[in-house]
Amino acid sequence: MSDSTQTLPRTSSIAAVGDVHRKRLLWAGFMAILSTGVGFAIRGGIFANWGAEYGFTAGQLGEIGGAGLTGFCFGVIIGGVIADKIGYGKLVCAAFLLHILSAVVTFATNTGMPKDSAFQCLYWGMFIFALANGTLEAVANPLVATLFPENRTHYLNILHASWPLGLMIGGIAGAVLGGMFGWGWKSQLSLYLVATVLYGIMFFGQKFPKSEASQKGLSLGEMFKDVGILGGLVICFLIALFFHGAFGLSNAAAYGIAGVLLIAIGIITRFSIGAILLFVLFATHALVGAVELGTDQWIQNITGNILTPTMGKWLFVYTSLIMFLLRFCAHFIEKNLKLSPVGLLAICATTAAIGLNLISISSTTGMIMLALLVYAAGKTFFWPTMLAVASDRFPRTGAVAISIMGGIGMMSAGMIGAPGLGYAKDRFAGEELAKNNPAIYQEYKADKSSAFLPFVFQDSTGLDGKKLAEAKAAPKDAAHTKEAAVAAADLQGDRKTLKADSAIPFTMAAIYILIAIYFKSIGGYKIVHLQGTSGAAAAGKDEVVT
């Protein structure tokens, strides 16, 4: 495993930024990602509303939830590519407008419209929402990495503590306003607009520094060299899945588009192979997105199925609180346990896998809370620490590598994680009911089969969303044994889904261990800095959002 970037002494640093100004930008980015978390949490809590109101299957709900993640990829990658060229301020303005547009499209959905039309409104509303979120993260991640080069792991974890805080706020809003006060899903979802207005105000008038790569005057092609053909393969594979799933293109057409994009990356980089380590980080971050965000998309639904829907919402808040608090402790943990960022990731992956298995066998509130504690502690540091590793080791990529990494994680969550778990729920629940009560299965099965990565998994027919909701709402007595059998099959399907999901973090743990061995073989984990300039010298004043 080779790392194409050498460790060099720093001869020029990022332009001096006052400590107060650095912190103002940090908290503005914090609020931006907070708005993302609020919308994500509320959306996860209203899946049941959409299923009951429109009759969507778990697979269809997974597709809608996936759109609320895949759009992120386009926002963060495109934003990351152009951030150093057009400036962060313009991207913040674009994200603000996209957040408003997403509300307009999503809220155009109404009960009287055809099921397919409702699906399209929700799908594209969530896609635009994710596009706005990705554009914001294309600003926040490289901005914080630039402002705090001395301790990126710590400050990126603080930045991303806003994500679980947003999940908490959204989860509480769903539990209180939706559960206790009976607010409709549109009223609940509109709350993310409050955080949107706040981040707009906080960024207004702020100056932005340039990244280390931009300061050195690196061209776009030079920033892309470490990504290269290998990194492009990861991006293009996920984009092919998107065009096949979102637009219904044939595999040949979808992979043809991806192939053209890969050739474009080759031309930009003069057909650089790219850094093998960065390729491994990209592939691993695809697993991070699938297990962290894909699972988060469904965890309220699953724990709510084990206990009650209201408890599922509160347990989601509980899990988010654990993550929020722990993300302020990354530096303390690394320092006192003498861990490198990669060592921290290896421990976290193992812990997350154990936690998912514990949740799958839990049946009481106390057991689930303990299992969620283990799972939350494991997944807490994945996302920001992966970004820190990429930024530490590949500074000449500027905003490009960590933006692409974020896009890969979200695209994977949207195209693999969320729909994959939806498919698993459909498959395991359908198989369970068909095995134990084939006649009841014929009555409750969905009119459309669920498909997921057809070149790997065969199509499977789950349970109809409306009929399932009615069965779960039926009284638990001797007169409703049929409904009880349906609910039991659905619950067993959820448990099997979590067990299958745990294979992902176990795989991640193995990869992190191999990366740690690699770093040990070259003298340990070190932060890389650029030396000298390449291309035209970066010039110009700090940008101001007006």
Order of adjacent strands in the largest pleated sheet = 1-2
Number of helices: 24
Question: What percent strand?
Answer: under 5%
**Which regions have little confidence, pLDDT < 50, spanning 5+ residues?**
1-16, 533-546
**Annotated CATH architecture:** Up-down Bundle
Distance between the termini: 46 Å
Largest sheet: 2 strands, antiparallel
* Structural class estimated from helices and strands: mainly alpha
In the CATH scheme, the class would be Mainly Alpha
Q: SSE string, helix = H, strand = E?
A: HHHHHHHHHEHHHHHHHHHHHHHHHE
CATH superfamily: MFS general substrate transporter like domains
Question: Mean of the pLDDT scores?
Answer: 82
User: Could you estimate the helical fraction of the residues in percent?
Assistant: over 70%
Which terms would index this structure?
disordered C terminus; 546 residues; 24 helices; single chain; globular; mainly alpha; Growth Hormone, Chain: A; disordered N terminus; two-stranded antiparallel sheet
Please provide a written account of the structure.
The protein has 546 residues and is mostly helical. The protein has a single domain, classed as Growth Hormone, Chain: A (Up-down Bundle), CATH 1.20.1250.20. The protein contains 24 helices and two strands. The protein has helices at 19-45, 47-54, 58-86, 88-106, 115-147, 152-159, 162-180, 185-189, 192-203, 212-215, 220-224, 228-246, 251-268, 276-306, 309-326, 330-337, 341-361, 365-379, 382-393, 399-436, 438-444, 465-473, 481-501, 503-521; strands spanning 207-208, 543-544. The chain has a two-stranded antiparallel sheet with strand order 1-2. α1 runs parallel beside α7 (162-180) and α20 (399-436) packs antiparallel against α23. It is globular, with a radius of gyration of 23 Å. Mean pLDDT is 82; it is low at 1-16 and 533-546.
